Amino acid sequence: MYVYQMVLTGQWSVGFYEPDGTYHEDSVHRSHEDAAQRTHYLNGERRQPEPNDLDMARVDLKAANNEGMIDLATLGTLQAIGHAILGLADEIRAIRKELHEIAECQAIQAAG
Questions:
Q1: Residue 33: per-residue pLDDT
Q2: What's the average pLDDT block by block, 10 residues per block, for the chain (112 residues)?
Q3: How far is CA 75 from the centre of its chain?
Q4: Residues 60 and 17 in one domain
Q5: Per-residue model confidence (pLDDT) at position 73
Q6: Are 13 and 25 in contact (CB under 8 A)?
Q7: Domain tally for the chain?
Q8: Are 57 and 39 found together in one domain?
Q9: What pTM was computed for the model?
Q10: Is 83:57 a contact under the CB 8 Å cutoff?
Q11: Domain range spanning residue 77?
Q12: How far apart are CA 66 and CA 62, in angstroms?
């Protein structure tokens, strides 16, 4: 079963726990409403989730490019920024996973 939880002020993680307590993150959202909607969807409510901010930005960029409102150099720069942001999100997930593992080890040491 998927759950959501606040991971940082203003950020909500959606994921699930394995029986051993390992948390697997599916996504991160800016509001608990968006996180709840994604959680409900993953738990079987098959209503189409609303697009997130990054999806909407892609749609806006594509429309602006198609209408000639943005030059290719600017579009390339914006796409590079988007990829960098996604890369940072992956790094943050990896760091959070490491911190979770450290906390688990500390809990085991404290109990033992």
A1: 84
A2: 86 89 90 86 70 60 64 67 71 82 82 76
A3: 23
A4: no
A5: 66
A6: yes
A7: 2
A8: no
A9: 0.42
A10: no
A11: 51-112
A12: 6
